[in-house]
Amino acid sequence: FTEEASKFFASEVLLALEYLHMLGIVYRDLKPENVLVRDDGHIMLSDFDLSLRCSVSPTLVKSSSVHGGGGGGSSRPVGLIDEESAVQGCTQPSAFFPRILQSAKKNRKAKSDFGLFVNGSMPELMAEPTNVKSMSFVGTHEYLAPEIIRGEGHGSAVDWWTFGIFIYEL
């Protein structure tokens, strides 16, 4: 593959793993043989027989970057929901946007009217099944993460280990 193609495929696999983790799925078998290229050039993951389904709730995380602004002195972290103007009835954030529950459709406002976006940024959400500890010894031997080999229990971090190997092999 060219460097550009490798970057493209790596970014698509990264997004696929991120999406699976948001759904509470630890893939556990990432390897080139399980990454299929569709007719349109995008990738698709296959072979979910070793994957682990777990519960996960997306949570709002604080951004480490601070918006400097134009000397106004406001050092509000970028990507946070403005808590003073957050809407009553917001539930746990979904994978992409915080859900807003409204009983009447006519009272619905645009998301930006509720203060969900601060300084033009979207809130940062994390939906990573990090508390999962599976004790099973699964995966392709060449791609096993150290915690699987040691038998200490593993979670979604094993997907990021195999992702590193996948990038190296590209």
Structure characterization notes:
This protein is an alpha+beta fold. It has two domains: 3-56 and 128-169, Transferase(Phosphotransferase), domain 1 (Orthogonal Bundle); 61-66 and 73-124, no CATH class. Helix content is 22%, strand content 8%. α1 (3-22) packs antiparallel against α3 (157-169). The longest helix is centred in the N-terminal third of the chain and has 20 residues, at 3-22. It is globular and about 35 Å long. Residues 64-116 have low confidence and may be disordered.
Question: What are the SSEs and their pairings?
Answer:
Elements: H1 3-22, E1 25-26, E2 35-37, E3 43-45, E4 52-53, E5 59-60, E6 125-126, H2 146-150, H3 157-169
Q: What is this structure, in a nutshell?
A:
This protein is α+β, with helices and mostly antiparallel strands. It folds into two domains: 96 residues, Transferase(Phosphotransferase), domain 1, CATH 1.10.510.10; 58 residues, no CATH class.
